[in-house]
Amino acid sequence: MNSTSPKAEHAMQMPNDLETPPMLGISGLNFYYGESHILRGIDMTVAPGKMVCLIGRNGVGKTTLLKNILGLLKPRTGTLTMDGNPMTRKTPDQRARMGVGYVPQGREIIPGLTVKENLILGLEARPNKRGKAKIPDLVFELFPVLNTMLERMGGDLSGGQQQQLAIARALVGEPRLLVLDEPTEGIQPSIILEIEAAVRQIIETTGISVLLVEQHLHFVRQADWYYAMQKGGIVASGPTDELSNEVIQEFLAV
């Protein structure tokens, strides 16, 4: 089978060390809205310390899949695991404490709180909340502009600064899997490059795994592996350095 063919009926999963369970494992996931079959037999893995990109045009089920991963929606059949531990029946807050961090599309920072207060909110997701938690220095190493704006209201930040704040807020919760939903949407090109570099640094310095939903080709190519969605199913996958022009046209062209 040619894994880069957008017409493929099946797609191979990301390679993973056989002795190490995937950070995120999805098997046979089916989800329905009423009787409408939205997600169709999704199989996907995100290996520890790797970045996986999920691509596909609008309306193919990407956001629905993320909501199933986060626990906001419940699949009819199938299983989800986190580092080998079952999480299909876990609530969203339990999944956050298992190590799932989320940066939603549109950022959704709280505009009426300061940058510092937004970051403090992220501490609630930490698995161990005993004692007084501190915003980690890594956040300001990755996004130094935030350290100069701690007392500014979140709503006063530019779109790019809000996106950096949203990623930083997820990071202070000490996730092991960071889920990013179209982080470059509405962001100017120079800030996109900064965010790309920060995400790669996060992976390289912390070992956090990343699941990215993205349409920006340059960012997609920063990932180690891609999965392409069409009509609620995974129809192509492979290493991003083998991403063909055919797949790009099929799943990323405007």
UniProtKB/TrEMBL annotation:
<dbReference type="GO" id="GO:0005524">
    <property type="term" value="F:ATP binding"/>
</dbReference>
<protein>
    <submittedName>
        <fullName>High-affinity branched-chain amino acid transport ATP-binding protein LivF</fullName>
    </submittedName>
</protein>
<comment type="similarity">
    <text>Belongs to the ABC transporter superfamily.</text>
</comment>
<dbReference type="InterPro" id="IPR027417">
    <property type="entry name" value="P-loop_NTPase"/>
</dbReference>
<keyword id="KW-0813">Transport</keyword>
<dbReference type="GO" id="GO:0016887">
    <property type="term" value="F:ATP hydrolysis activity"/>
</dbReference>
<keyword id="KW-0067">ATP-binding</keyword>
<dbReference type="InterPro" id="IPR017780">
    <property type="entry name" value="ABC_transptr_urea_ATP-bd_UrtE"/>
</dbReference>
<dbReference type="InterPro" id="IPR052156">
    <property type="entry name" value="BCAA_Transport_ATP-bd_LivF"/>
</dbReference>
<keyword id="KW-0547">Nucleotide-binding</keyword>
<dbReference type="InterPro" id="IPR003439">
    <property type="entry name" value="ABC_transporter-like_ATP-bd"/>
</dbReference>
<dbReference type="Pfam" id="PF00005">
    <property type="entry name" value="ABC_tran"/>
</dbReference>
<dbReference type="InterPro" id="IPR003593">
    <property type="entry name" value="AAA+_ATPase"/>
</dbReference>
<dbReference type="GO" id="GO:0015658">
    <property type="term" value="F:branched-chain amino acid transmembrane transporter activity"/>
</dbReference>
<keyword id="KW-0029">Amino-acid transport</keyword>
<dbReference type="GO" id="GO:0015807">
    <property type="term" value="P:L-amino acid transport"/>
</dbReference>
<feature type="domain" description="ABC transporter">
    <location>
        <begin position="24"/>
        <end position="254"/>
    </location>
</feature>
